[in-house]
Specification:
4 helices; about 160 residues; mainly alpha; about 0% strand
């Protein structure tokens, strides 16, 4: 029971955190008249905090899945199993998150700094174009992870309702 609650809370953080950032924080940052550099730096920090929460949530999901696997008491002669959808979804969530955090985010942050430091108009335009190419991929992967988290939540709710 405790593992199931921890998993659901972790998924709620992943889903709710991104929804709040995308639908409340980002529009607020750019609608209050902040300079693009200030807004960009703020959102970089906001997503850094969200990434920390997501890393903790993924760790919770992995530990809970392993806990369910090892703590489950099967009937004599039965091998303990877990469904295939959950591990696949958690693995995809973790892999996509890893690509975002360990590859795209450092690259995007470096390109963002180059864009902020650029002085001439052509140099600034080229730097922003390079940044937004990476940013668009990163943004798409965040949405993919949102979909994976929602799918995983649906699988977990279905599992708990059917039992």
């Amino acid at each position: 029971m405790i593992l199931a609650v921890a998993e659901l809370m972790a998924l709620c953080l992943v889903i709710g955190g991104l929804v709040v950032i995308v639908y409340a924080v980002i529009p607020a940052v750019f609608n209050v008249g902040l300079q693009p550099e200030t807004g960009g730096r703020f959102l970089t920090r906001a997503f850094g905090g969200y990434n920390d929460l997501t890393a903790g949530a993924i760790a919770t999901l992995i530990v809970a899945a392993l806990g369910r696997f090892w703590l489950r008491k099967p009937s004599p002669g039965q091998v303990p199993t877990i469904g295939t959808a959950e591990p696949v979804l958690v693995a995809l969530l973790a892999c996509t998150f890893g690509v975002i955090v360990f590859w795209l985010r450092p690259e995007a942050m470096a390109l963002q700094e180059q864009a902020f430091a650029a002085t001439g108009a052509p140099e600034k335009t080229m730097a922003y174009e390079a940044f937004f190419r990476i940013h668009h991929v990163s943004r798409a992967l965040y949405i993919v992870n949102l979909g994976l988290a929602i799918a995983l939540l649906a699988v977990k709710v279905k599992r708990s309702v059917i039992r």
